[in-house]
Every structure is written in C-alpha cells, then in structure tokens.
Amino acid sequence: MDILDSIKGGLIVSCQALPDEPLHSSFIMGRMAYAAMLGGAKGIRANSCEDICEIKKTVNLPIIGIIKADYPGSPVYITPTIKEVDALVGCGCEIIAMDATNRIRPNAVSLKDFFDQVRKKYSTQLFMADCSTYEEGMAAAQMGFDMIGTTLSGYTEYTKGAAAPNFHMMSGLVYNCGKPVIAEGNIWTPEELQIAKNCGVHAAVVGSAITRPMLVTKRFAEVMAR
C-alpha cells in the first residue's frame, strides 16, 4: 500500500527504447529515468532487467517493470511467461506489469491460469494488468491484479481504431473495477493528461511524448512536410 500511495496522483514516466531505436541503451535509459525523477515523476516504467538495474543505481522511485519477449504462436509479448516474472522479481521491481488481454499466452495458457500460478508463487508482489478493453480490466480486477492499466487499448487486433487516449475506458474502470486505475497509452499532451486525471485515475503513465525523441521529432517534421 505504501508503494501505491507513493504514486497516487502522480506521473509515471515510461523509459523504454526498442532495439532499432537510437537511444537503445541501459545507460541512456538510466539517465532518462534520472531526468524524469528530477522533473517530478513519481514512478518509472521500464523494460528489461538490464535497464531496471541501471535505473535503480540513481533513481529511488517505484518501478513498473516489464520484459518484452516474443513466443511462437502467441501475440502476447509483455511479460508473457513465468520466466519473465521470475526475472523481474529477482531485480527488485516494486510493480510488475503483464499483458492481461483476452488472448492465449504462450503454450496455450489462459490469463487466469497463468495469473493464478504467478499469484501463488509471489503472494506479496504488486501486479499491474495491461488491458485493451473495459471488459478485460474488469476481469483482471476480479482475478486479483493490484492495478488496472489501459495500456493496450488500440494495440490489440480487436481494438484497432479505438479512441486514443481511451478516456471512456478509464472512466468506466475507475467507477466500477474497485482497483487503482492507471491511465496509459497515447497520452501526448498535458491537456490529454488533465482529462485522464479528471477521470479519477490513480496515476498516469506517459512515455513516447517524453522519452522517445525520434517519434516526437517525426510528429513535428510531418507538420513541416505538409
């Protein structure tokens, strides 16, 4: 509860860079997270134990940790198996996020069966559900996830074209799921962040608009190229 209280009403900055991006480097992500902390962030979201361990050298904020991994036969790639959960627990993540969509995980395991296994093994660990629909968020809350995120709205096959950011999903979950709701996904401006805050969310994650300068530059360059 202390961890949840520490991020309440705060900004969580996602510090991630994909392998094909110029800033892909644990050292750079560590400095990015440090800059976010100095700027007032209350938490960091990070991918891979390498990045998380580097960030922890200089940042004393709660970390929402994930590991992105591709497995044959499954579209789920955010902390998809117990192997990734074990690794994240081992590097001291305060919160572990995982795909909580209505899709079959690797080895044809359902989310419920997987999370039951995870919760039994790590009874005191905080877990965040990365969802793409209101229904998935409600189901994740019933399963016992500690936090519900709107992270994957618009990123699953069946939510393509959904509103971005999905304020309707945020509001519905805030009023009905009974768990802290984390606004995440396609928040690009302070004005959008204010709307998310007004929905009553516990905290909000902003990533690309802060920590992915290649994408930010592209948005501005496209305006000048019109």
- Runs in which pLDDT lies below 50 for 5 or more consecutive residues are none
H and E string: HEHEHEHEHEHEHEHEHH
Q: Kindly provide the radius of gyration, computed on alpha-carbon positions and rounded to a whole number of angstroms.
A: 17 Å
CA(first)-CA(last) distance: 49 Å
Structural class by SSE content: alpha/beta
CATH class: Alpha Beta
CATH superfamily: Aldolase class I
Strand content: 15-25%
Q: Numbering strands along the chain, what is their spatial order in the largest sheet?
A: 1-2-3-4-5-6-7-8
Overall shape: globular
Q: Quickly count the helices.
A: 10
Structurally, the number of domains stands at 1
Approximate helicity band: 40-55%
**Major sheet characteristics:** 8 strands, parallel, barrel
State the CATH architecture. Alpha-Beta Barrel
Question: Total number of β-strand segments?
Answer: 8
* Average pLDDT, all residues: 97
CATH topology: TIM Barrel
List strands and helices in order, with pairings.
Blueprint: H1 2-7, E1 11-15, H2 26-38, E2 43-47, H3 49-56, E3 63-66, H4 82-90, E4 95-99, H5 111-121, E5 126-130, H6 134-143, E6 147-149, H7 167-176, E7 181-184, H8 190-198, E8 203-206, H9 208-211, H10 213-225
Parallel strand pairs: 1-2, 1-8, 2-3, 3-4, 4-5, 5-6, 6-7, 7-8
Explain what the structure shows.
This protein is of the alpha/beta class. The protein has a single domain, classed as TIM Barrel (Alpha-Beta Barrel). The protein is 41% helix and 15% strand. The protein contains 10 helices and 8 strands. The protein has helices at 2-7, 26-38, 49-56, 82-90, 111-121, 134-143, 167-176, 190-198, 208-211, 213-225, and strands spanning 11-15, 43-47, 63-66, 95-99, 126-130, 147-149, 181-184, 203-206. Helix 2 (26-38) crosses helix 3 (49-56). It is globular, with a radius of gyration of 17 Å.
